[in-house]
Specification:
single chain, 276 residues, alpha/beta, 6-stranded mixed beta sheet, 10 helices
Length: 276
């Protein structure tokens, strides 16, 4: 067993290190279907902290912010889908785009293109597409600006594709990022997703964290919390909520809401699940 790269701690530990930028170069070369030599040495990792709208606002940090010459690339890892997280990602993308013009430059025609790539593990994708691209457009479909783009990369679909289409490198990346066994990780990493030294580095980093007792404990604790969350959701659907509310069983709803809150569920989700 290995800890998958889409585990939040592992993702941040590996992909935000400047010394691992060659791994990111390999991924983006595949994602944008570019020659690796056209990216090598041009990619920069930027600070991830977003500007606060007020002194009362909490610190906000995006997952990964990159600069590729005239483009700003915001990568967000989404292991669980929710409407709140979707809206949050849009806000983050707008924040990133708004600051991509230099403070001393008032010529907005020079603003850099912003691309947000959402790495989605649990997205309810209605289009059944590996990449779903979104732009600002009018009712007739005319794009207002090509300098603001949000991409949803469905890694579940990617995994399904790569089992039958090994030559689809982006689909294989989806499997590499979500692999939970060393056998699967090595198989789909192959020898052609990145250079030999970069591959060796990624494998070493993955194995290092997968054998770290503290990281393993953190991963299984997170997995347990998610299991409890899913169990509570299922119980709410199957047993008590709708019937309880209809019968005036407010106490049952409050009890379930409290359980949700104890495992860190956001208020909007609790409200929708309990009707409170």
């Amino acid at each position: 067993m290995i800890i998958p790269l889409n585990f939040d701690f592992i993702f941040e530990a590996i992909f935000t290190k400047k010394e691992n930028i060659d791994i990111l170069e390999s991924f983006l070369a595949c994602y944008f279907d570019m020659d690796i030599n056209d990216i090598k040495g041009r990619l920069k990792i930027l600070p991830r902290e977003l500007e606060l709208e007020s002194k009362k606002a909490k610190n906000k940090q995006i997952d990964l912010l990159l600069e590729l010459e005239n483009e700003t690339i915001n990568i967000e890892l989404n292991n669980k889908h929710s409407d709140g997280k979707k809206e949050r990602n849009i806000v983050y993308a707008c924040n990133v785009h708004s600051r991509s013009l230099g403070y001393s430059d008032n010529n907005y025609s020079k603003i850099k293109k912003t691309i947000q790539i959402n790495l989605n593990v649990d997205l309810k994708n209605q289009n059944n597409k590996l990449i779903d691209k979104y732009y600002l457009r009018n009712e007739e479909g005319k794009i207002l600006s090509e300098k603001f783009e949000i991409d949803n990369l469905d890694m579940v679909i990617g995994r399904k594709i790569c089992y039958n289409e090994y030559n689809n490198k982006l689909a294989r990346w989806c499997t590499v990022l979500t692999a939970k066994t060393e056998e699967e990780f090595r198989k789909y990493l192959g020898d052609d997703l990145m250079g030999k030294e970069t591959k060796s580095k990624l494998m070493d980093e993955t194995m290092k964290y997968s054998s770290d007792e503290d990281v393993v404990a953190l991963y299984f604790e997170k997995s347990r919390e998610e299991l409890e969350y899913n169990t509570l959701i299922e119980e709410a659907k199957q047993n008590g909520l709708k019937q309880g509310i209809e019968q005036g069983s407010v106490n049952k709803s409050i009890e379930i809401a409290r359980n949700f809150k104890n495992i860190g569920t956001d208020i909007d989700t609790i409200s929708k699940a309990t009707g409170l």
